[in-house]
Write a structure and sequence with these properties.
This protein is an alpha/beta fold and about 375 residues long. It is built from eleven helices and twelve strands.
Length: about 375
């Protein structure tokens, strides 16, 4: 399902960000040696700011100006009410609601995800031979709950800003987007706009436009991931560079802890060595499990660690899942000077990153 907008966000003004960027702090280790990202954005440079503004321009042209100011406000209020009532079927049940959702909440998240992905790939770039590619040498990114377009545009921006321009890494990318609502037209519109504004001919060819049937850089699968069988999950995870659950996993846990755990275990079993699994969600997310007449609440992070670091840890396998970065709470703060016709927001989140690695001493 598309991520529900969460409460821990602060407003930064209707058209320009007024929040000063925080200085970046070095990562600090846990007692177990796990590196903890502070989540603070580094001081923006001109090239990065230009890419961030390009992200906002894509959403502005693709979805934010479709319905006019008065109609947009009315539609937004309806969507907010449905989300408040947790009536996701209604909130994501009409094309105009999807446009409004993507225009309102996805731009801020795309900017935050761009920072998160950039930091992650700064770490992975020197190890490019140790992370999976498909048979064409392309990175494969599979995103669960990514129909609203934030992950798609953030990953495209990553290639504009970092991989192609600075590292000339890989032969391109393929993004598999999975969600329960019919977001295809929204993703298509974003893809078309992204392709139009790509900075060079190579990227225009690599980044779109596309649909479900051609050899584009993205596919869209409207499906309920909790209904997937184990074989499908394992195939979905094969040769994937990065799998993401952005503001999605806790909603899945809330629906069913057992089914979500089974999904993660099947993905973990099917993943290729070097695959990275990234989870971003609201800080302090809990899920409730009923045992008879009793209810027990579990932190999302605890459930996730239990699945990947313990249950999926097969001692007979030469590979194991390792947590390579984690933070229980951090902020993405908008840099000043960005322009967008709708209020932008800072974003508070927790983040946990895992990678399938070879065991020390393994053959």
């Amino acid at each position: 399902m598309a991520p529900r907008p969460k409460d821990p966000m602060t407003r930064s003004g209707p058209s320009k960000s007024k929040t000063k960027p925080a200085a970046k702090k070095p990562a600090t280790p846990n007692s177990d040696g796990t590196k903890i990202s502070t989540g603070e954005a580094s001081k923006p440079n001109i090239q990065k700011l230009a890419e961030q503004q390009r992200i906002l321009d894509i959403f502005r042209k693709a979805v934010a100006t479709r319905h006019g100011n008065d109609n947009f406000t009315s539609l937004l209020q309806q969507v907010k009410q449905y989300l408040y009532n947790r009536d996701f079927a209604a909130a994501f049940g009409k094309p105009e609601f999807l446009d409004v959702y993507a225009a309102r909440w996805s731009p801020s998240r795309a900017l935050a995800y761009f920072d998160i992905f950039s930091e992650l790939f700064d770490r992975l770039v020197p190890l490019q031979h140790d992370i999976p590619h498909d048979e064409d040498g392309k990175f494969r990114f599979n995103v669960v709950g990514g129909g609203a377009g934030a992950e798609f545009i953030a990953l495209s921006a990553l290639f504009h800003h970092t991989l192609f321009s600075a590292c000339q890494l890989g032969q391109g990318m393929k993004i598999g987007i999975t969600d329960m609502a019919n977001w295809f037209d929204v993703v298509m519109s974003l893809s078309n706009q992204d392709s139009t504004e790509a900075p060079n001919e190579l990227l225009r060819h690599t980044l779109g436009p596309g649909d479900l049937t051609n050899d584009s850089n993205w596919t869209y699968d409207r499906t309920d991931v909790l209904a997937w069988d184990a074989a499908f999950c394992r195939n979905w995870a094969r040769e994937v560079t990065l799998a993401t659950f952005m503001f999605t996993l806790n909603e899945l846990y809330t629906t069913s802890i057992s089914k979500t755990t089974a999904l993660l275990l099947a993905i973990a079993k099917g993943a290729s060595p070097g695959t990275v699994l990234l989870v971003v969600d609201s800080p302090g997310s809990y899920s409730t499990l009923k045992l008879g007449h009793e209810e027990k609440r579990y932190p999302m992070q605890w459930l996730l660690d239990l699945a990947l670091l313990e249950t999926a840890n097969d001692e007979s396998s030469p590979y194991h899942w390792e947590k390579i970065a984690s933070t229980e709470s951090c902020w993405f703060r908008l840099p000043p000077g960005l322009k967008y016709p709708i209020e932008l927001e800072n974003m508070r989140y927790q983040m946990h990153t895992y990678q399938l690695k070879k065991r020390k001493g393994g053959n």
